[in-house]
Amino acid sequence: MTTQSRVNQPAIALVVITDLDGTLLDHFNYSAAAAQPALKRLRKMHIPVVFNTSKTCDEVAGLRHELDNTDPFVCENGSVIHIPKSEGGGYNSEILGTSYVQILKVLHHMHQQGFHFRGFNDMPASEVAALTGLPQDKAWLSKKRAASEPIIWHDSDDALTDFRNQLEAAGLQLTKGGRFYHVMGQADKASGLAFARDFYQHLWDQPVKVVALGDGENDRAMLEAADYPIVIPGEKQTLSIDNPNAVTAPRKGPAGWNHCIIELLEKLQ
After folding, report:
1. CATH code assigned at 104
2. Which residues belong to the active site?
């Protein structure tokens, strides 16, 4: 074990892995203000907070700075892992899924097949901004993708089933997030959780427990793989997951996130 890892040994061998939009960040204004008390407490205890999000690396980089987060993070629904370099800035990154270029090739073929959908690659930043509520500069960052494509579906339910089947035949998958469907390779947010567990068990040289927080269907696999799954109520519906330890936050977004993290820390200390 390195000197640095001894210095950062946590008060509890716990890792927090969290979705962002609608979970740590408010669904409408993208603020994490209501979660600041819990975030500060976690930081004081040296418990890492690993973002596991559909957002891109460029989007998360700014958010990490705003929230004073220096931990590894997982982007594009488990498709890309980023570990900050110890010197010189930047990240060591690994794509777990399928490259963006290959995904776009498949989607171009699907357009030619007559399926009606619109992806971020088809949209100017102004359209992405209108759909997400992001300012245009941040919407532009959301278009800089490495291994997944968010889409808006403009076709029938039957066509969606056929679309999903053809994606699977091409080695891709379709998952539903809070706002969009996401086309991606064979990775998911549970891949991100497995990475975080292994990374910190190796770093700390001891078993770790993982608490996961999420609100969307694309968070299901992550929540079901967690030791302490916390379901944040969604804007349209609230997930019911297959994990006996699951709890549902009493409030949406960062307020619910804050409540449940503080409650769990009180229980574990």
Report:
1. 3.30.980.20
2. 19
